[in-house]
Amino acid sequence: MPATTTSSRSDITAARREAAGAGAGPGGYTPPAWTPDFAGLLEQDPEIAGVLLAEAARQGDGLQLVAAENFASRAVLAALGSPLANKYAEGYPGARHHGGCEVVDLAERLAVERAKALFGAEHANVQPHSGSSAVLAAYAALLRPGDTVLAMALPHGGHLTHGSPANFSGRWFDFAGYGVDPHTGLLDYDEVRALARRHRPKAIVCGSICYPRHLDYAVFREIADEVGAYLVADAAHPIGLVAAGLAPSPVPYADVVCATTHKVLRGPRGGMILCGAELAERIDRAVFPFTQGGAQMNAVAAKAVAFGEAATDAFAAYARQVVANARALAGSLAEEGLPVTTGGTDTHLITADPAPLGADARTARGRCAAAGIVLDTCALPCPEDPSGRRPGLRMGAAALTTQGMGEDEAVRVGALIAAAVREDPGARAATVALVRRFPPYPHPG
Ligand SMILES: Cc1ncc(COP(=O)(O)O)c(C=O)c1O
Predict the structure, then answer these.
(1) Per-residue pLDDT, 406
(2) Cβ(280)–Cβ(88) under 8 Å?
(3) Residue numbers for the site described as Plays an important role in substrate specificity (predicted)?
(4) 336 with 417, same domain?
(5) Considering 15, 37, 65, 391, which has the largest number of Cβ atoms within 10 A of its Cβ?
(6) Residue minimizing CA distance to atom 6 of ligand 1
(7) pLDDT averaged over the chain?
(8) Spatial separation of the C-alpha atoms in residues 353 and 329, rounded to whole Å
(9) Total count of domains within the chain
(10) DSSP conformation class of 81
């Protein structure tokens, strides 16, 4: 039987008061002894300290356009680097397999309550270690090995967990794939419906790693109902925009919503699952003990911090700026001669074709990297290719927006990408000059 723990809000309040009144630091506050000690690390392990410094410099000295990345706040980093990292906490609040969980239980309860409020969900599980772990748990809750699943085909933008033969999903389930129209790049819902009728899947997955437009969850729901399938929304990319009310929410439509917490949402690396009350127990058991052991309580606390941040007006303004910046960047790329899939974006995410500038996607990504611009390649719709696809570039505007860049800078970023792809010798210096004006972690004060 799991050990039952009691929560102690009064202990937390007392600890907070003691810390606030403690002393000598700025504002009468002395940081706790466990606060991450970089100077100590530098002395003890200069090799790893050097890696941390080099990575921080790399992140600040280039343009970080990987669509799945962002710069988490110092508050999120503080929770990640806290003694909650030391705590084992198998199970759920109030029903743990380890003793001493009464304090971390509060963190998980707060994370769950904040996630439920933020997304209007009846149930939230905040323990998945990653987006992939969240999808694994969703399948574990709803499916049996060998079941048929309909998802976006990988070459069209499905994630590895949507049926890749190299992933558990493709090994354990029988996936059928839908795609996007090679001419428009848009989802063809009639094709999804026809495939659902033909394959009679046990679950339909909607979600993508590179689709720049909003999904119509109501149509997916209708198709799933018609064939008696579960609807799983893998909202890893849009969930931050959903939090801000800038993208349609899958919560009212999907049986299970899987997400990551580290993209536009700007939390720690990790996953979460939202669902209705009727699936709550199955989802919880699918996460622990079926697919995971103890939750990482520092990450759970950091997720709570991120959900708290995402509920603010400041985050809503940030998310609006992300979309405005992505649109400005897409427009700038098109002006520079890189066609943008679907002609633009509804989200933080853009895919574009560098071929008119005389470079294939890998070459273009390498040239951008040489200029300090970090982005990915992904498959784009291409009617001229017999496969209907050809590699292109994928990028997102979440990180540069966190740095404080606006539409003017986003337009400049489009020009810098084009300059880099054309091997303009000034591209690197111009990129560094831009990013140095917008440090991701400016010194406080
Ligand atoms: C649609 C989608 N699903 C799942 C994942 C997996 O997330 P993770 O890398 O945290 O496992 C991602 C990651 O980018 C994603 O885009």
Answers:
(1) 98
(2) no
(3) 262
(4) yes
(5) 65
(6) 131
(7) 94
(8) 14
(9) 2
(10) T
The verdict on whether 263 is a catalytic residue reads yes
Residues lining ligand 1, Cβ inside 6 A: 68, 130-132, 135, 159, 161, 207-209, 234, 236-237, 260, 271
107 in the same domain as 171? yes
> What tokens does 180 get?
């996007």
Residues 247 and 132 in one domain: yes
Which tokens sit at 435?
């990013």
Q: Using one digit for the tens of pLDDT, what is the confidence trace for 354-364? A: 999 999 999 99
Q: Residues 358, 293: one domain?
A: no
Of the candidates 88, 102, 181, 423, the residue annotated as catalytic is 88
8 Å CB contact between 257 and 251: yes
Same domain, 306 and 320: no
How confident is the model at residue 20, as a pLDDT?
Answer: 60
Q: Is the pLDDT of residue 1 over 50?
A: no
Say if CB 405 and CB 325 are below 8 A apart: yes
Q: Distance from CA of residue 48 to its chain's centroid?
A: 26
Vertex 366: Cα angle to 365 and 370 (nearest 5): 115
The protein residue whose alpha carbon is closest to atom 9 in ligand 1 is 131
Residues 298 and 380 in one domain: no
102 is catalytic: no
Active site (annotated) includes residue 309: no
Asked if residue 289 has a cis previous peptide bond (ω within 30° of 0), the answer is yes
CATH number assigned to the domain comprising residue 419: 3.90.1150.10
Residue 397 lies in a domain: yes
Q: What is the largest CA-CA distance in the chain?
A: 70
Give residues with Cβ within 8 angstroms of 307, minimum separation 6: 111, 114, 115, 118, 243, 267
Domain of residue 424 covers 313-436
State the closest ligand 1 atom to the C-alpha of 132, by its place in the atom list counted from 1: 11
CB 137 within 8 A of CB 129: no
Of 166, 162, 165, 108, the C-alpha closest to 132 is 162
pLDDT by residue (tens digit) across 70-84?
A: 999 999 999 999 999
Do residue 405 and residue 321 come from a single domain?
yes
Known catalytic residue at 260: yes
Element (H, E) at 325: helix 313-335
Q: Which of 234, 336, 353, 376 is catalytic?
A: 234
What residue spans of 100-166 are helical by DSSP H?
Answer: 102-119, 131-142
CA of 160 to the centre of ligand 1 (A): 8
Is pTM beyond 0.85 here? Answer: yes
**Interatomic CA distance for residues 364 and 6, integer angstroms:** 56
Q: What residue's CA is closest to ligand 1, atom 4?
A: 131
